[in-house]
Design a protein that fits this description.
The protein is α/β, with parallel strands linked by helices. It has a single domain (about 5-120), classed as Hypothetical Protein Aq_1857, Chain: A (Sandwich), CATH 2.60.300.12. It has three helices and nine strands. It has helices spanning about 10-20, 75, 115-120; strands at about 5-10, 30-35, 40-50, 55-60, 65-70, 80-85, 90-95, 100, 110. A four-stranded mixed beta sheet has the order 3-2-5-4. Strand 8 (about 100) and strand 9 (about 110) form a beta hairpin. The chain is globular, with a radius of gyration of 15 Å. Belongs to the HesB/IscA family. GO terms for molecular function: 2 iron, 2 sulfur cluster binding. InterPro entries: ATAP (IPR016092), ATAP_core_dom (IPR000361), Fe-S_cluster_asmbl/transfer (IPR050322), HesB-like_dom_sf (IPR035903), SufA_proteobacteria (IPR011298). This is Iron-sulfur cluster assembly protein.
C-alpha cells in the first residue's frame, strides 16, 4: 500500500497545468525540492520537468504532474501545495507540518524531517519493515 508524499489543491493543479501548457511540448510537469538558503535555513525549489527522474516521487491531480526530489521527501511528507494569487503577488504555497519556523519575508523556512513512526501511528504513512 502506497501513500502520497504531498497533496495539491485544485488551484495548484490548475496552475501546474497552465505552466506546462505554456512551456512547450517537452514540458511534463514541475519538480519540487528543498535547498539550503535564506535566513530561516531552507527554501522550496520549483523547476520545470522535461525529463522525469525515475527516483522522484510523482503526485498527480486533474492531469497535473508534480515530481518530488528524493532528498526532499522526509521534509515534505504531509505537505499540501496550494497556489495563491493576490493583487500584489502570486505563487505556490506550502502548508507543511514539518515546518518549525519561517523568516519574516516568507521566502525561507526551517524544516525538520518527518517522524515516520508518528505518521504510521496516525495511519498517514507506511513504515517499511526492516
Amino acid at each position: 500500500m502506497g501513500f502520497a508524499v504531498m497533496s495539491m489543491t485544485d488551484t495548484a493543479a490548475a496552475r501546474v497545468k497552465a505552466i506546462v501548457e505554456n512551456s512547450g511540448p517537452e514540458a511534463k510537469g514541475i519538480r519540487v525540492g528543498i535547498k539550503k538558503g535564506g535566513c530561516a535555513g531552507m527554501e522550496y525549489t520549483i523547476d520545470l520537468v522535461t525529463e522525469p527522474n525515475a527516483k522522484d516521487d510523482l503526485i498527480e491531480r486533474d492531469g497535473a504532474s508534480v515530481w518530488i526530489e528524493p532528498s526532499a521527501v522526509l521534509y515534505l511528507l504531509g505537505t499540501e501545495m496550494g497556489f495563491e494569487q493576490t493583487t500584489l503577488r502570486s505563487g505556490f504555497t506550502f502548508t507543511n507540518p514539518n515546518q518549525t519556523s519561517a523568516c519574516g519575508c516568507g521566502e525561507s523556512v526551517e524544516l525538520k524531517p518527518a517522524d515516520l513512526a508518528a505518521l504510521a501511528a496516525r495511519g498517514d504513512a507506511v513504515v517499511p519493515a526492516r
